[in-house]
Task: inverse folding
């Protein structure tokens, strides 16, 4: 763990990772290299964030932090096992990664785009691109391990 109270956020314009002090996270941060604004909203919630077809690009693709996306549905038993793990990870990764949840029944566009054929499916995004696909109700340790290279 880094003792310095700051967060590493990627600039979406030039790709540079900027170290943003914690006190700047609540205001508008800027990239040190190209000066583009970095959206710090929603990054310090420590909770899972619901996303859908309409805000998937804004919240996942354009996220300055890596994103773990839980693709789930209310009727899915194994998804209920993964739910509390997502809450735990969102808290553990506060300021380092976002944990988002996508209801596949209500958001078919994103579900089709990533060819979600069984749920739960966990997708890992970094720098706006899909990096990993994890299928099934995996143990927390395995999910953490898959996410480790990105946070
Ligand atoms: Zn930049």
Result:
């Amino acid at each position: 763990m880094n003792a310095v109270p700051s967060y590493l956020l990627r600039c979406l314009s030039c790709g540079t990772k900027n170290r943003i002090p914690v006190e700047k996270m609540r205001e508008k941060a800027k990239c040190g290299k190209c000066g583009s604004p970095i959206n710090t909203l929603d990054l310090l919630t420590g909770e899972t964030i619901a996303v859908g077809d309409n805000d998937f690009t804004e919240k996942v693709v354009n996220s300055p932090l890596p994103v773990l996306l839980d693709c789930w549905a209310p009727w899915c038993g194994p998804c209920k096992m993964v739910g509390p793990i997502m809450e735990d990870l969102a808290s553990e990764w506060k300021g380092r990664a976002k944990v988002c949840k996508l209801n596949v029944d209500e958001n078919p566009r994103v579900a089709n785009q990533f060819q979600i054929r069984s749920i739960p499916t966990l997708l890992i995004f970094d720098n706006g691109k899909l990096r990993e696909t994890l299928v099934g109700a995996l143990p927390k340790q395995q999910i953490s391990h898959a996410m480790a290279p990105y946070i």
